[in-house]
């Protein structure tokens, strides 16, 4: 076994991973980078520092910060997009104090997702990232991520006496309604409430 292969095996032990794809995610590098190490016969020193930090703390996040899971899912803010994969991608780091005290949520119930489309503009721009608080249902009007008819969407939901009104913040999109029968009989599930968003300028 080459020295690099031995070092890669050691990195997997430190990060508690078994596959190169899992190792690359843990270290925040692309899978092709690992092949580059093999080609060059050398692994950068900072990679071992990262791996040792993960071994000690279980994460790369500094003290007082948390890694929030980022799910690379097609969340449509347009007409809805079929969910082809629900694959966990790289994590993003946030202050634990910000999530617990400023937002008032349990970090264990929080995850991040990207938004595609312009139907929630100007509230949520295309390519923005939303922070979602997992909920089993909803009791107040607000912006939610939900699945309907095999599509994952982010929309403003409003209570109606006989169901739910689905509203886009972009006036170019017409609101539509889901009756109680639709909710019970269709493929409908509330995933969570959008509690924060970040977007590129």
TrEMBL record:
Q: Which residues form the Peptidase S24/S26A/S26B/S26C domain?
A: 74-195
Q: Which domain of life is it from?
A: Bacteria
Give this protein's Gene Ontology molecular function annotations. Answer: DNA binding
Task: Report the protein name in the record.
Answer: S24 family peptidase
Q: Report the leader peptide range.
A: none
Specify whether Transcription is a keyword of the entry: yes
Q: Does the keyword DNA damage apply?
A: no
The record's section on InterPro entries has: Lambda_DNA-bd_dom_sf, LexA-like, LexA/Signal_pep-like_sf, Peptidase_S24_S26A/B/C, Phage_CI_N
User: Could you tell me which residue ranges the Bacteriophage CI repressor N-terminal domain spans?
Assistant: 8-50
Checking Pfam families in the record gives: Peptidase_S24, Phage_CI_repr
């Amino acid at each position: 076994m080459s020295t690099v292969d031995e070092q890669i095996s050691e990195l997997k032990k430190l990060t508690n991973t078994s596959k190169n794809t899992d190792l690359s995610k843990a270290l925040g590098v692309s899978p092709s980078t690992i092949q580059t190490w093999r080609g060059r016969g050398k692994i950068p020193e900072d990679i071992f520092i990262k791996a040792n930090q993960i071994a000690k703390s279980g994460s790369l996040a500094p003290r007082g910060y948390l890694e929030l899971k980022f799910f690379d899912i097609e969340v449509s803010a347009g007409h809805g997009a079929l969910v082809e994969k629900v694959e966990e991608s790289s994590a993003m780091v946030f202050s634990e104090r910000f999530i617990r005290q400023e937002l008032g949520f349990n970090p264990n119930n929080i995850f991040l997702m990207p938004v595609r489309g312009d139907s929630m503009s100007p509230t949520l721009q295309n390519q923005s990232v939303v922070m979602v608080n997992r909920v089993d249902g909803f009791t107040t009007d607000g912006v939610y991520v939900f699945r309907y008819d095999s599509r994952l969407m982010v929309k403003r939901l409003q209570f109606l006496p006989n169901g739910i009104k689905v509203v886009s913040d972009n006036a170019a999109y017409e609101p539509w309604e889901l009756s109680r029968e639709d909710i019970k009989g269709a493929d409908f599930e509330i995933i969570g409430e959008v509690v924060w968003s970040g977007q590129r300028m």
